[in-house]
Amino acid sequence: MYVCHCFGVTEDQVRGHVADGACTPRQIASACKAGTDCGSCVRRIQALLGRGACPRRELIDRGRPALTSDPVLDEAA
Ligand code: FES
Hints:
The protein is mainly alpha-helical.
């Protein structure tokens, strides 16, 4: 079933990107462009992303910033 009609992206494709580590609609968009035209599919993409395991989101939920590229800052967080 199609999630994004503008780019012909299916639920299975989105799930595949999630399995590859995508945690946000923006990361899905980077992988396959879904959500970057009319935007009407973003809520469905968010629903597919759900609240599953996402290391960066877990850090944000706990009040910590997402990982930075600076190991010193990461250690201090
Ligand atoms: S349906 Fe996905 S951007 Fe339009």
